[in-house]
Write a structure and sequence with these properties.
- The protein has a two-stranded antiparallel ribbon.
- It has one domain.
- With 61 residues, it is α+β, with helices and mostly antiparallel strands.
- It is 38% helix and 13% strand.
- The protein starts with 10 loop residues before the first strand and ends with a helix.
- Strand 1 and strand 2 form a beta hairpin.
Length: 61
């Protein structure tokens, strides 16, 4: 589930599947989640899919 606590344009919400609730990422794209290597790549892909979920769903419908 993605949290929608703050819909300001300065913040985008993305998934944190382990906690089931979104965290905030700044508009610069930096993530508060420390990750590197393969784990980092997986988290980046997961975040991208979460951020573009509506567009992906409509494109695949």
């Amino acid at each position: 589930m993605v949290c929608h606590n703050d819909l300001s344009p300065k913040n985008t919400v993305y998934r944190d599947g382990a906690r089931g609730c979104g965290r905030w990422r700044s508009s610069t794209g930096t993530s508060p989640r420390p990750a590197s290597g393969v784990a980092g790549a997986v988290l980046e892909a997961h975040d991208w899919v979460a951020a573009h979920r509506a567009a992906l769903d409509s494109a695949l419908a």
